[in-house]
């Protein structure tokens, strides 16, 4: 049988397969000689970007195909996320995102995609404690100082964008502490941090991955972390819960997602590879230095978490009286 005849015979056999079998055949060939786009919906240097890049290089080696991180920041993560929601569900366009993903319906009622229905959870990188920071020039030494100043007059707080994890963490703290303020959104965490460090904006709640360099350089003072327990990276910094601010904690997870209809075998392989990478000694050490704590979830558990958080964020927005355009 000639090469051409063998090719036509194989092609005909594949086309004659039922749809489910053809899908399995295609999944088995994934990935082929085609780069995988990992969309990060925030700017370069943001916590999501930093953590995603720690994983994508070893992931590329594990699956034998390049994984290219693309920063598509803006609108609290919606611009980049929408790109993935509309992408072909073939395993070649993925999303690196954080807890801001599930805040979108509360912050943007007219969003063009559904964070739960249009995405499938793949794997978690871990939880990043958010730390409330101020510039030394502000003369604020404690959370109590910050709250007292906020209650005495106008105070501003920065975020990486409306509906971002940095925004949501600040709102949970503000609501618990009982003060009003002016939200100043930016296109990403680095830009927001710079404005807080200069004193032009009073404070923000930033992930330790982005905030630590500023803290170590004494450009920012850490007041408290918004997690249930202290950060491994900042063990001397108390939690807002310790300080008496009930329901002020915020789970800032970071992980990877795919378009909802991505074949299950591809999602499962990505889950296995990413979980193995995150659990490896080298990557685990790098994550710990960023203050990242483990949050092992199966794809099904990841999906359930998204549904639960969407409902919780809608309730928070209502309780805080947040109004978004």
Describe the structure.
The protein has a five-stranded mixed β-sheet, with helices on both faces. It has helices spanning 3-16, 19-29, 47-63, 78-86, 104-107, 143-152, 165-177, 189-198, 208-216, 264-279, 281-289, 299-320; strands at residues 36-40, 67-71, 93-98, 119-127, 130-134, 156-159, 182-185, 203-207, 221-225, 253-259. The protein has two domains: 17-128 and 253-320, Bordetella uptake gene, domain 1 (D-Maltodextrin-Binding Protein, domain 2, 3-Layer(aba) Sandwich); 130-225, 3-Layer(aba) Sandwich (D-Maltodextrin-Binding Protein, domain 2). β6, α7 and β7 form a beta-alpha-beta unit. It is built from twelve helices and ten strands. 44% of the residues lie in helices and 17% in strands. With 325 residues, the chain is α/β, with parallel strands linked by helices.
What CATH architecture of the largest domain do you see?
3-Layer(aba) Sandwich
Classify the helix fraction into a percent range. Answer: 40-55%
| Total number of domains | 2
Q: Structural class given helices, strands, pairing?
A: alpha/beta
Q: Tell me what portion of residues adopts beta-strand conformation.
A: 15-25%
The biggest beta sheet reads: 5 strands, mixed
Q: Termini separation (Å)?
A: 66 Å
Number of strands: 10
Instruction: Please write the string of helix (H) and strand (E) elements.
Output: HHEHEHEHEEHEHEHEHEEHHH
Number of helices: 12
CATH superfamily assignment of the largest domain?
Answer: Bordetella uptake gene, domain 1
CATH class of the largest domain: Alpha Beta
